[in-house]
Amino acid sequence: MVPDITNQHGFYTDDQLAAAVHIASGLWVRLDDWCFGLAEIGHRYARVLAARIDERPVSFAYLDGDQNASYDLITSDMHPKILHSSHEPISTNPWLMDQLESWGYSLSPQQAILATIYAQEIGLRIGDQVAARRILSWVLTYEGRANWVCRHRQELFALGRAPDWRAVV
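Above: the chain's sequence. Below: its structure in token form.
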């Protein structure tokens, strides 16, 4: 079921709706999100929720946050890259998951997917424990910072630069 949303009070501008893209729900994407760049955390990785706004098919990017998920309209200027096929969901990297468990870490399903995505991005080789530790550090850091950016976009715009991450996450 695709949610129907009414654009009451003009929350989305005509330009935003014209630039909105439609991607199937459940897929993972990599986005060029301006706020993520400003916050110096790189690309945005997110799951997709397909919806309709005033009968127009659109998609939203989200991560399950520590409090509430934040849903942001995906537009063409974000250059969405689908990270897997709709027929083959992302499966986690078994060696990486075993390695992290042996170190005492039990990742959430979302963290396991993010770890696998990042492992693919950096070209993780089986047996590379240094890279596995780097991936673990990246996942734990990225998830917290990504959730903060999604919940504090206006604050980030006003700040005009990356926050002091030690003070906010």
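The radius of gyration is 17 Å.
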